[in-house]
């Protein structure tokens, strides 16, 4: 099985900038090429290069594609022209060719998402990009050589491989061809979308984010995705609002995505959200923001632009409250163990379960039904863990977002049957027989005869770990549910007001909500 080449984040190498006021004219430019030295950080051209703020992230090229492009450029192969538009402030906006320019900039400045330019752009938060950056740098140094090495070749021509020397000579004459969009910012924006929907269409989620770049859900999602770093889609708000947005986004990101998940899984201290791709992450967070703030996908574009940041902050506060409710040290936290609620027995992530749980929490909040859930929580967790293949059947061919209400109803149906005293062994059988959720089936969890390989797969290693580690996880002494390290509260068995002391015999581990709300 061929290992997929990781996508490389080059998004920091060409900063974003908002297009100027509608009607402003771009100026005619005579220059028709960019030389290699124009892309050095100290040049007169590179510092004024910009992407429109509605440009998708420059992270779609993998290691192989970047290497192949650089080889083509150095060998003098035909490279498609880069299309630019010049604003009245003399910024050069990339209308088409961002990945091509960014790949060259990365090579020239030795920054593949993990060096000086990227660290400054992301305020040092580049952990997710390091592995891909190291891989592409290694591949380039082996196949092509670094830009710094090419600069020194002229002094040692006799000792250099002829292929490399030929490429070094080419660098003196090679250039990227340019085309210019003439007209105002409206014409430039229209050109961007027209061009980018042809050869490499913008993905559905990315298009939604681009269209919502000034709307509160879009700004909130972008802020959470990048933990308040990267391009500031909120830069037009007051400084106080900017600071509040960044603080909220960082906290939400930390609650949801930390600690970082390592594969194969060797700890039960797992994050709410496991390892998902960048495109999945964008969709995941946008949907999370929408669900929490009751925004239907069909009505996204009818939202008004957020001109002050007030609505964005409101949306983020709602997301923060929900994230804390799921798993946090906050007194409101249910402390739902991510392994039980959001992962399969062999460590695969369950997006449909996450959306269903979020929807369930919103429903419990609305109907004031938390106590009903707490009273049967231990058995509820046993059921959803033993039958983790039911939710995928409910989602079926629908999207996880569209199916979230059905998943919520399935979870609440379990709660109702437990409340009614139905035997825990019969609950799923009854739900299947009722056919409320379609034709569900009781499926075996593990088929040990599936593989003939003598080596353990990553999933099998994870399943073995989870199987043996799960019984050792601490349980809440009030509700009996699993405890996660991020949401443990120390409770007085005998309350302080009833004379309980702060000694070891009177201490017990509980969920924050069970201790501070349910118990009282």
Task: Please tell me about this protein's structure.
- With 520 residues, the chain is an alpha/beta fold.
- Among the domains are: 11-202, no CATH class; 203-333, no CATH class.
- The chain contains 21 helices and eight strands.
- The strands form two sheets. It has a six-stranded mixed sheet with strand order 1-3-5-4-6-2. The chain has a two-stranded antiparallel sheet with strand order 7-8.
- α8 packs across α9, α9 packs across α10 and α9 (216-225) crosses α11 (278-292).
- The chain is elongated, with a radius of gyration of 27 Å.
- It starts with 15 loop residues before the first strand and ends with a helix.
What's the quick description here?
This protein has about 525 residues and is of the alpha/beta class. The protein contains 21 helices and eight strands. The radius of gyration is 27 Å and the shape is elongated.
Jot down its keywords:
520 residues, alpha/beta, two-stranded antiparallel sheet
Strand order in the largest sheet: 1-3-5-4-6-2
Please give the radius of gyration in angstroms: 27 Å
Range of helix content: 40-55%
**Number of helical regions:** 21
Using DSSP, what is the number of strands? 8
Write down the oligomeric state.
Answer: single chain
Which overall shape is indicated by the principal axes computed on the Cα atoms? Answer: elongated
**Global mean pLDDT:** 88
Report the β-strand fraction as a percent range.
5-15%
Q: Classify the secondary structure makeup into a structural class.
A: alpha/beta
Uncertain segments of ≥5 residues (pLDDT<50)?
none
> N- to C-terminal separation?
56 Å
Helix/strand order? EEEHEEHHHHHEHHHHHHHHHHHHHHEEH
The major beta sheet can be summarized as: 6 strands, mixed
